[in-house]
Amino acid sequence: MAEVIWGLATSHVPSIGAAMDRGKTEDPNWKALFDGYRPAREWLAEHKPDVAIVIYNDHANGIDLDIVPTFGIGTADRYDVADEGFGRRPVPDVIGDPELSLHLLESLVDEGFDLTVFQELDVDHGFTVPLSVWTPDPGDSWPCPVVPLLVNVIQYPQPTAARCYALGQALGRAIASYGKDVKVGILGTGGMSHQLAGARAGFINAEFDRMFMEAIESDPAKLAALSREELIREAGSEGIEMIMWLIMRGAMNERVRKVHSHYFVPASNTAAGLALFDNRP
Ligand code: DHB
Ligand code: FE
Question: Which SUPFAM superfamilies match (predicted)?
Fold first, then answer.
């Protein structure tokens, strides 16, 4: 039986990756953000999973905007790093785990979550920045194979927070029913509050973010009850990315132990947040 050992919620702001790639993590603008990651990174380095699942959204880099699946899963044995217009990030391509992907796909479809299947997929900053937050110096390869689970958060109508939480709970059952005895790390990515365009461009709501950060640990059902409109009003049009944290949380135990959290404003236009939970209190 496979077991979830930890869940990592983290923002995926592209400039966090760019700051790492360009050696700027000690610059005054960035140092406090990266210093805040350190305790989580140290703990994660001592708790290496056999496989990870990254719950993320593509930003019209790996998938064209004319096809936007609500939920999807990668089933490939590798995923290339996307070129988002300024060259590929200098980080390793991603090794997949087709056997786990196919098990999750079958289990989730059987539970009523009809995922779109990606047999080929380039992964953008939504995927690679969280991997860099976890593993700043991957060398030639990331710490383990990774399965991408995709969510539409960029085009109306995004799935509800409740549907995401339910998907996470089904994902937890799917992992538990896997025949192989593997340890799994889950990354819930995106957020925190931000709005990149329109009249409210630059919008950040620290009070909402702090509530979300607290409740994702202790009361995820409260967050699952938020409507799409409430999420966009309180967190901004891109802040709705945080519904992906609920998929991660749903796959974990009812009670988890917070290892470390960190909140930093602003990273680019975004409130950057990180929360790491041990699933084995
Ligand atoms: C920014 C944040 C995002 O989540 C994203 O996908 C792209 C850009 C930003 O703040 O710059
Ligand atoms: Fe984003």
Answer: LigB-like (SSF53213)
